[in-house]
Specification:
The structure holds 2 protein chains of 2 kinds.
Chain A: E1 13-14, E2 22-27, E3 30-35, H1 40-47, E4 52-53, E5 60-61, E6 74-77, E7 82-84, E8 95-97
Parallel strand pairs in A: 2-8
Antiparallel strand pairs in A: 2-3, 4-5, 6-7, 6-8
Chain B: E1 9-12, H1 16-27, E2 33-35, H2 57-61, H3 65-78, E3 83-85, E4 88-94, E5 97-102, E6 105-110, E7 113-116, E8 120-122, E9 135-136, H4 138-148, E10 150-151, E11 155-160, H5 164-174, E12 178-184, H6 189-193, H7 195-198, H8 202-217, E13 222-223, E14 227-232, E15 239-243, E16 249-253, E17 256-259, E18 263-265, H9 268-272, E19 277-280, E20 285-288, E21 301-303, H10 313-330, H11 337-360, H12 366-369, E22 376-378, E23 383-384, H13 385-394, H14 400-407, H15 420-431
Parallel strand pairs in B: 1-2, 1-7, 2-3, 7-21, 9-17, 11-12, 11-17, 12-13
Antiparallel strand pairs in B: 4-5, 5-6, 8-18, 14-15, 15-16, 19-20, 22-23
Helix pairs in contact in B: 1-3, 1-10, 4-5, 5-8, 10-11, 13-15
Bound molecules: flavin-adenine dinucleotide (FAD) and FE2/S2 (inorganic) cluster.
Flavin-adenine dinucleotide (FAD) binds at residues 12-18, 35-38, 43-45, 89-90, 117-122, 139, 142-143, 164, 167, 263, 266, 269, 305-307, 312-313, 316, 447 of chain B.
């Protein structure tokens, strides 16, 4: 897969502005920003249209249930953690790997 | 059961059902343990945003703000008479032993009795395009808004077969999101015919009508009786396409979809606890058998809320209190007879309403008949509808657990929560038999993924 050079817009759309601190994180080395209180899934999907590669086909996924039931939102971090993005809060300095690692 | 020894009781689930249950148990002199996977109490409907994303209750819960606030404050009022364990998953039950996972630490809890109030999730049925990024459940669309203050897209299409559809459309519109379509895959007529039954719960009916009216007034296009539904797009959502009752095709451009078709009970823990699971004709779902008093088929295992039968939030509060009163009585503690009487009358009224509601939103089996063999059925592992049909025809599979063994359908990370009902329906349709005859996916621990160190 060659990475797409043109940035693709985020999927989610913030309706309620937050006043809390800005949290900086990275997606495949690209800097991104979220807010305190964002779930990891929210922060990623505000920045891009999908969350992870699907292990069984050349497609991507964006999660599905947002309530910890479907397990479609597990993402890898550069530090080796594997997290269910819809039920994990964003932390300053997280580095999410979407394209970065081949392993499922 | 002797009156002297206080039974050690666990309540699983801190939604409306579990919260009302612990309240009654405490009033009866017990010190229950309340366990929930979520970080804060409230359950699905009264879900609370994480710290940093809080908003006023009136914005989050609308008409239900007072009920939400009352439930959220309940644990504070009960203080240390409840041992509350948030962030704790019950990943298995063996007899009266709960296996727990909290902050990556494993633990177990032996109890004398338990009340399972595990709630529900969206009922999912596949349709072309349902695995595209940008397609979520209808419940997910609501959670994004409630818990995070975000919309799932800029031009959102909502699709459903139940009262959640007009509700979420209303909530989105009110929050300033653009809802380009609210599409109901069931017909409008049954809603009129069963309107009389719906009058059993006038407040609920009024609310439903109000939401529907607001949607119409608010310019959200609401359509009924959609067939041959599909979502178009290659790597993201581009449009929803459907056929109306007269066979005309419609297409609405959008960039995100929230779609699901009613609710299904979260029954795995009841199954593992050994409760008898029975088929409910009305909702075409397998549910743990629950007596009107809240008993399961297993002594000292009680059931409350949407985890045993879908009834909605108000019913969940009532069944939670009811099950706890039964538990108290069964353990020789005094129980308030007048309260029991009142609860039973209210619950009877709600049951009539529920039957009318289910009849107003019949199971949209046509979605499954329309599916091509190439469509994805299991989104965990990408197993197709065709694989199930082939197993049914060519390998003579007539039972869902054998189907699972042969095709891996229901074996993925979600444990069949998402695909289970659709798989059974497709298997039954391929065989030409009633869906209850193909059985149900047996519950297996862990009910959700846990670290391997769990020592299974
Ligand atoms: C996404 C969604 C949106 C909904 N929106 C509405 C709405 O707007 N209006 C409405 O009237 N109804 C709504 N409902 C219906 C809802 O089921 C009921 O209103 C109500 O929340 C049911 O209360 P309950 O106490 O039975 O379950 P819930 O409120 O679902 O609470 C169950 C609790 O059990 C916990 N739990 C489950 N399994 C485990 C486990 N193994 N270990 C630890 N904890 C566990 C869960 O984390 C959850 O907090 C919605 C349902 C869903 C799924
Ligand atoms: S989106 Fe379903 S578990 Fe996270």
């Amino acid at each position: 897969m060659t990475p797409n050079p043109t940035p693709r817009p985020g999927l989610f759309h913030r309706l309620v502005e937050r006043t809390g601190p800005v949290l900086r994180f990275e997606i495949d080395g690209v800097p991104a920003e979220g807010r305190a209180g964002d779930h990891l899934l929210t922060a990623i999907l505000l920045a891009r249209p999908d969350l992870r590669r699907f292990e069984f086909a050349e497609t991507t996924r964006s999660g599905f249930c947002l309530m910890g039931a479907c397990q479609d939102c597990w993402v890898d971090l550069a530090d080796g953690r594997r997290l269910r993005a819809c039920s994990t809060l964003l932390e300053e300095g997280m580095h999410v790997l979407v394209e970065g690692r081949a392993r499922a | 059961m002797s009156v002297a020894k206080l039974p050690h009781v666990a309540v699983v689930g801190a939604g409306p059902a579990g919260l009302r249950a612990v309240e009654v148990l405490v009033a009866g002199g017990l010190n229950p343990v309340l366990i929930d996977e979520a970080p804060r109490s409230g359950g699905q409907i009264y879900r609370r945003p994480p710290p940093g994303a809080e908003r006023p209750a009136a914005d989050l819960y609308g008409f239900e703000a007072a009920k939400a606030t009352a439930l959220h404050g309940l644990l504070d009022r009960l203080g240390d008479r409840v041992r509350y364990r948030p962030n704790t998953l019950v990943w298995s039950i063996e007899g009266k032993r709960l296996r727990l996972l909290a902050d990556e630490r494993f633990d177990a809890l032996e109890v004398d009795a338990m009340i399972l109030a595990t709630g529900a999730m969206d009922r999912v049925l596949p349709f072309p395009g349902w695995t595209l990024p940008g397609v979520f459940t209808l419940g997910a669309a609501q959670i994004a808004l409630k818990a995070q203050g975000v919309a799932i897209g800029r031009r959102v299409a909502l699709i459903g077969a139940g009262p959640l559809l007009p509700l979420v459309a209303h909530q989105y519109r009110k929050a300033g999101a653009e809802v380009v379509l609210a599409l109901d895959v069931t017909a409008f007529l049954p809603k009129v015919i069963h309107g009389f039954g719906l009058l059993n719960a006038p407040a609920t009916l009024a609310k439903g009508l109000w939401y529907m009216a607001r949607n119409v007034l608010g310019g959200v296009p609401m359509r009924f009786g959609a067939r041959r539904l599909r979502v178009e797009g290659t790597d993201r959502v581009e449009a929803v396409v459907w056929t109306d009752a007269r066979g005309r095709e419609h297409r609405v451009a959008c960039d995100a979809v929230g779609a699901s078709f009613g609710l299904r009970s979260e029954i795995q823990l009841a199954d593992l606890a050994g409760c008898r699971i029975v088929f409910d004709d009305l909702t075409r779902q397998w549910q743990p058998e629950r007596s009107p008093e809240g008993r399961s088929s297993v002594v000292d295992v009680y059931l409350a809320g949407d985890g045993a039968a879908i009834g909605g939030a108000d019913v969940a509060e009532l069944t939670g209190a009811r099950a706890a009163l039964t538990l108290l009585a069964d353990h020789g503690r005094p129980a308030d007879a007048a309260r029991i009487d009142r609860l039973d009358r209210e619950l009877a009224r709600h049951r009539r309403f529920r039957r009318a509601l289910e009849a107003a939103y019949p199971f949209p089996g046509h979605l499954l008949d329309d599916l091509a063999d190439t469509e994805t059925l299991c989104r965990c592992e990408g197993i197709t509808v065709g694989a199930v049909r082939a197993a049914a025809r060519e390998r003579d599979v007539d039972e869902i657990n054998r189907l699972k063994a042969l095709t891996r359908t229901g074996m993925g990370r979600c444990q069949g929560r998402v695909c289970g009902q659709a798989a059974a329906e497709i298997l039954a349709r391929s065989r030409g038999v009633p869906v209850e005859t193909v059985g149900r996916l047996r519950g297996n621990p862990p009910v959700k993924p846990i670290p391997i160190e769990g020592g299974l």
